[in-house]
DNA sequence: TTAAGTGTACTAGATGACATAGTACACATA
DNA sequence: TATGTGTACTATGTCATCTAGTACACTTAA
């Protein structure tokens, strides 16, 4: 389900966060589906439960999962997720736009790039 | 010229790198202009010279400045810089596009956003 | 030639984020 | 009641970052 890349300098808990975000957004995990328990996943990955705990807490903070004490962690409703993810992407595109402005790079270059990129994928 | 935000968790050397990149790209520092010496800037900011050294090494690695031993550090030629910066921005926009695809967000949303954003600034 | 300013390369130590190890407690369910 | 679950806590080790200090090679101006 998820794995760890020890050669990656990204903190383990962050790798886990990113992978679950991908799985959830891709639809590989469906709404209200239970994800592995803190202890189980820790065993499976041969890492400490505290690290999984930290990853799950972050996923909950960002709205990707919800927690029920004594029962486990579950995937948040799909509509909410799409909104969250869309907001994130819009923040990122805004950041790149600001970066381009500050550097004197024409926004139209970005638009053209996205447009040609979109076409070539049809 | 540059400053440090101790409340910012970003490493000091990275803050300095980012600020010089901004100054250079904005044109606040011109081609072949000398930037403060390692020791001077360290004194001014009340931090260790090694930290400035690390920042300057990174700036040189990224092509923003060039170093002449015994003389100091200087801003790279403007044309090269614009190319470097443009490449960086294109990498970023590509990353956002990939992110959008993976999440099922239509690239046209991004294009529309950039387009309306561009218009409203006229 | 000499002194001052410059980049560069070391070693040694402090601090904080990250991860591990172990324990304990509260809650839900079969 | 037993098991599985989330959660909280302390202690320890590792590593990146930063500081501190020293040393050397180079450039420039006096």
Which terms would index this structure?
DNA-binding; three-stranded antiparallel beta sheet; homodimer; 122 residues
Structure description:
Two copies of one chain form a homodimer. Chain A has helices at residues 12-26, 38-45, 49-61, 78-103, 107-119, and strands at 34-35, 65-68, 72-75. By secondary structure, chain A is mostly helical. Chain A folds into two domains: 12-76, Arc Repressor Mutant, subunit A (Orthogonal Bundle), CATH 1.10.10; 79-120. A three-stranded antiparallel β-sheet of chain A has the order 1-3-2, covered by helices on one side. In chain A, helix 2 (38-45) packs across helix 3 (49-61). The longest helix of chain A is centred in the C-terminal third of the chain and has 26 residues, at 78-103. Chain A is elongated and about 55 Å long. The A-B interface holds A 22, 25-26, 82, 85-86, 89-90, 92-97, 99-100, 102-105, 107-111, 113-115, 117-118 and B 22, 25-26, 82, 85-86, 89-90, 92-97, 99-100, 102-105, 107-111, 113-115, 117-118. Chain B binds a DNA duplex (30 and 30 nucleotides) through residues 9, 11-13, 37-40, 47-51, 53-54, 56-57, 67-73.
């Amino acid at each position: 389900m998820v794995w760890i890349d020890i050669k990656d300098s990204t903190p383990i808990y962050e790798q886990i966060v990113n992978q679950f975000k991908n799985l959830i957004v891709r639809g590989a995990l469906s709404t209200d589906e239970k994800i592995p328990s803190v202890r189980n996943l820790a065993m499976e990955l041969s890492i400490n439960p505290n690290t999984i705990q930290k990853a799950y807490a972050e996923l909950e903070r960002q709205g990707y999962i919800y927690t029920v004490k004594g029962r486990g962690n579950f995937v948040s409703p799909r509509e909410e997720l799409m909104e969250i993810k869309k907001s994130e992407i819009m923040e990122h595109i805004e950041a790149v736009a600001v970066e381009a402005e500050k550097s004197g790079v024409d926004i139209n270059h970005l638009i053209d790039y996205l447009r040609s990129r979109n076409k070539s994928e049809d």
